[in-house]
Design brief:
alpha+beta, Thiol Ester Dehydrase, Chain A, 7-stranded antiparallel sheet, globular
């Protein structure tokens, strides 16, 4: 039986190179390496994209929901390989079957789910989804590739 772990924002920033305004994962509430991850993104009116998307009816852009799901896959991949994050980066290489079902608005808590489908020669495939209040707002298949950082 695998043990689940959690990460706060400080640990997330150890793994992901993203920073404000592009760090889109606030907390990991469950991570089982080589299996699955559940994370949270708290959506607030203070997000810079709400200024223009849309001024009279703020909605989180679908591409940023997809990015949040992709960041969750990166965290799961990092925890699964056991290689220190300073030696490797994960790049998004594909999104398939992306669907956006409901708008995400300020005040929502986006719950991100990532499950490993397979990993082969440094390319990882994941099933991902995002929910608000237990209702799916987005889903996709995401692929990312590992790249070793050379100095």
């Amino acid at each position: 039986m695998s043990t689940s772990e959690t990460f706060d924002i400080h640990r997330i920033m150890e793994y992901l190179p993203h920073r404000y305004p592009f760090l889109l994962v606030d907390r990991v509430i469950e991570c089982v390496p080589n299996e699955r991850l559940v994370a949270i993104k708290n959506v607030t009116i203070n997000e810079p994209f709400f200024i223009g998307h849309f001024p009279d009816r703020p909605v989180m852009p679908g591409v940023l929901i997809a990015e949040a799901m992709a960041q969750a896959t990166g965290l799961l991949a990092f925890r699964s390989v056991g290689v220190p994050p300073e030696h490797i980066l994960y790049y998004l290489v594909g999104i398939d079957k992306a669907k956006f079902r409901r708008p995400v608005e300020p005040g929502d808590q986006l719950r991100l789910f990532a499950t490993i489908r397979r990993s082969l020669r440094g390319v990882w495939c994941f099933d991902v989804s995002a929910e608000v209040d237990g209702k799916e707002v987005a889903s996709a298949e995401i692929r990312c590739a590992a790249k070793e950082i050379t100095t």
